[in-house]
Amino acid sequence: MATIERDQTYKPTPSAPVVRLMVLETDLPHPDTFSERGSFGQIVHHHFSRAGRAHHPPLGVETDQVFVVTEQGGRIPSVQEFDNFDGLLITGSVYDAHADNEWILQLLDLLKRLWIEKPEFHFVGVCFGHQLLARLLGGEVGPAPSRDWELGHSRIELTPTGQRIFRTLEDHIHLHQMHQDQVVRAPSPASASELLAGDSDTEVRVWGRSEHTPVQGLYIPNRLFTTQAHLAFDEDMVKRQIQIRVDAGGIQDLEHADRAAETSHLEHDGVEVAKAVLRLFVYDDDEYTGGDRKTS
């Protein structure tokens, strides 16, 4: 296992805890992105470290990462490898979260065991990870009914849950998108009854939606946070990831791809969303009453 990465600018104190996160990498970045910023796990580490420093009070971040695509030389970690971590994050991927590749089925089995055997463990998913965790909880994942892509800088309308967990009075945020598949039907206590045994009243909440994607993210207090959009993408990453999908034939509407690439420089709310993810580990946002609120 790789050496745990730490934010060297952070000095832990009893009042400012450290969040320890295992990143499950489900794809490889564009070669130029890798040479500039490292693997997706390293990109996640730097983004969440920045969010931790920006949070009030500051939060430290330590991460490790495992590439889990076994058909590309990765491996599925054991349950025991998560013993020293507070939670995991599943990255985005070019693979379909509704597919039955052997590594995807093995990963679902691992997630199920972790959910059942570690009741205090936290689960975070981005794009593919969002869809896979929805599948784990009995939601339905598949191509968008329109069969088109949601790409580039996008407006996400917030539900009351989203406004609360992002600590904002605004009714929307902006993030970068890169997907055709989506969560078609959100999980429910009934669909997740096996994993929510003994806690059947737990509500799987939707925190945001867009015209293209009605389930932009899922939330269970102190347990689960997912987002269809990407938190850590910058301008170059957006353009490169679009180009990868164009070259592979996944995106065929080239005008749509070009328009999306032209939005890649626009400011987005990735740090604010990452701060909300970190609070999943250390606070109960249902009891939030004020402070550290974004109003513009």
TrEMBL record:
Kindly provide the name given to this protein in its UniProt entry: Glutamine amidotransferase domain-containing protein
> Where on the tree of life does the source sit, at the highest rank?
Eukaryota
State the coiled-coil residue ranges. none
Membrane-spanning ranges: none
Q: Which Pfam family name is an example for this entry? A: GATase
The taxonomy runs: Eukaryota, Fungi, Dikarya, Ascomycota, Pezizomycotina
Record domain Glutamine amidotransferase: where: 81-191
**Source organism of the structure:** Aspergillus puulaauensis
Cellular component GO terms held in the UniProt record: cytosol; nucleus
In terms of PANTHER family, this protein maps to: GLUTAMINE AMIDOTRANSFERASE DOMAIN-CONTAINING PROTEIN, GLUTAMINE AMIDOTRANSFERASE YLR126C-RELATED
